[in-house]
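#struct-pred

JT: dropping the chains for the assembly here, can someone run the whole complex?
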Amino acid sequence: MPHLAGRMRRLSASELAKRVAYGILTVMSALLVLSASGRDRVGIVDDLSAALLDLHANIEESRMALLGGEFAMILLVSCADEQTDALVDALPEIAERCGLDISVRPTHAPEVSGRGRPYRVECVSLDTPGIVHAVTALLRRRNVNIDDLETDTTGAPFTGAPMFRMRIVCEVPEDQNASQLRRDLDEIALAHDLDISFRPLGTVGEE
Amino acid sequence: MPHLAGRMRRLSASELAKRVAYGILTVMSALLVLSASGRDRVGIVDDLSAALLDLHANIEESRMALLGGEFAMILLVSCADEQTDALVDALPEIAERCGLDISVRPTHAPEVSGRGRPYRVECVSLDTPGIVHAVTALLRRRNVNIDDLETDTTGAPFTGAPMFRMRIVCEVPEDQNASQLRRDLDEIALAHDLDISFRPLGTVGEE
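RK: done, full complex below.
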C-alpha cells in the first residue's frame, strides 16, 4: 500500500521496523513500553509527558483513556541507549510524584512481516458479553495478528440504547483468503447479531 | 449534545456515570481497570477476552496496541459485585497462562461533571519531542480534563516523512472560553509548527 494521496495511515508494526531499518530511529535506539494509571485529575498527562521530556524520552505511540475514575495510559517510548538507565531509575520517583502506578518493559522494533495485508474490522452491536472473544477467536484461527484494538460503549442516537463498538487493525497473512475471512466474519455477525465491516486499510474513506 | 442523527459518539465520563445512574450498569456493579501486556503473538487478545468471559466479566471499554514487540492493553471491566473476588483471584493464573503482566485497580463510575463541553483536539506535525507536553500543559492551565488521548507516528504520503499525530477528546469547563482556548492552541501551533484543529464533538463529520 504505497503512498495514498491525501491520507496518512497508521504506522504498522512492519512500517515501524522499516523506519528503524532506514535509520530514522537509530539515534533513539532503546524502546520501552510504559503502562501507567492513576486516579484521574486535570494535568495527569502533562505531568507524565513533562517528566519524559525532561529525561530526553520521546513518545513514539500511545493510547490513553479515562476508564471509570482511573486514567490509564500505555506508551511506546524511545530514548538514546545511554539514557535508558536514567529513565528507568527515575520512574519510581515520577510515579510517586504524579500519583501513578507505572510499570516498564523493554521492547524492540517488531520484525517486518513483509506480506501481511492490513485490514480494519469494525463492529457495532448492542452491548452483550462475548463479542470481543467471538471476533478475536476467529482472527486467531485464521492466524491474523491484531495491531490495534479499541472498544467503546456508546449511547445510540435517538434511542439511547447501549451500543458496543469495536475497531480492530489487523494483518491478514498471505496464505489466508481475505474473502473467505469476510464470509466467516459475516457468519459471526449473523450468529451474534453484530454489524461487521471488514475493509483493507488505505482504501478510500480509510486512514 | 443530544441525539445527533446517524452518528454515534463516544461515551464520555459523564455519560458513563449517567448510564450507571439510569440503571444500565446496576447488574454489573463492580468496575475494575486492568492493565495487561506481553510479548505479541497471534491469539493474545482472544486468550484474555475468553478468560474474562469465563469469569462473567464484561469489557466496557478498552484500548490495545502493538507497541514495539509488546502487545499492551488497558480495559475497563465490569462484573457483578459477588464475582469480583473470583476475578481478581484468577488474574495471576491468567497472567501466567497467557504470558502477560497484569495489574488491576478497582474503580468507580466517574462523577457527572454536568457542564463540560466535549471537544476534539487533533494535531499533526513532524515528529519532534515535546508536542504532547506543549498541548497538554495548555489544557491543564485551562482546567480542561482529558478523556481520551491517542498518538501515532505515521509515514507521510509521498514524502515518507515521519509524522506525529495526536487525537485528544477533552472536556472544556463551563468557565473557560472555547474561542480563547482555540487562540491559545493556534499560538502553540505557530510556535511548534503544528497543525492543530479544535472542534466540538458531535458536529458534522465527527463521531
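JT: nice. The helical segments of chain B are 13-21, 44-54, 84-98, 131-141, 178-192. Residues 26-107 of chain B form a domain with the Alpha-Beta Plaits fold (CATH 3.30.70.260).
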